[in-house]
TrEMBL record:
Region (Disordered) location: 1-63, 87-116
SMART domains, A to Z: THY
Lineage of source species: Eukaryota, Metazoa, Chordata, Cephalochordata, Leptocardii
Compositional bias annotation for Basic and acidic residues: 16-27, 52-63, 89-100
Homology family: Belongs to the thymosin beta family.
Biological process per Gene Ontology, one example term: actin filament organization
GO CC, alphabetical: cytoskeleton; cytosol
Naturally occurring in which organism (per UniProt): Branchiostoma belcheri
Name of the protein in question: Uncharacterized protein LOC109487749
Gene designation: LOC109487749
Length: 116
């Protein structure tokens, strides 16, 4: 066998048997919004690069709200619960009968099971 491919198949191929296919662009160009966002990010980074830290002023932070500790949370929860219970209207409750569906076995039943 020779290492050369058979060129006769390629040259004798009937291209009229091929179907027409529309090509799809898989990698579209960026939109105008995307370009503007990238330009804005680039401008911001250039501004920060040229910033001289020695020209910055010191700023004091003022913490206005502190997180409650566990005791404060417990007191708030207790106050809410007390308000909800004291304002509850019992007259709106309906009467319900309780039926026990899972009864404990009697002494006789236990003794009978021990025998089996």
């Amino acid at each position: 066998m020779s290492d050369k491919p058979d060129v006769s198949e390629v040259t004798s191929f009937d291209s009229s048997k091929l179907k027409h296919v529309e090509t799809e662009e898989k990698n579209p160009l960026p939109t105008e919004d995307t370009i503007n966002l990238e330009k804005a990010a680039e401008r911001s980074s250039k501004i920060l690069e040229g910033l001289d830290p020695s020209k910055l002023k010191h700023a004091e932070t003022n913490v206005k709200g502190m997180k409650p500790d566990a005791e404060d949370m417990h007191q708030d929860r207790a106050a809410l619960t007390a308000a909800a219970v004291s304002g509850f209207d019992k007259s709106k409750l309906k009467h319900a009968e309780t039926t026990e569906k899972n009864t404990l076995p009697t002494k006789e039943q236990i003794a009978e099971e021990k025998q089996n």
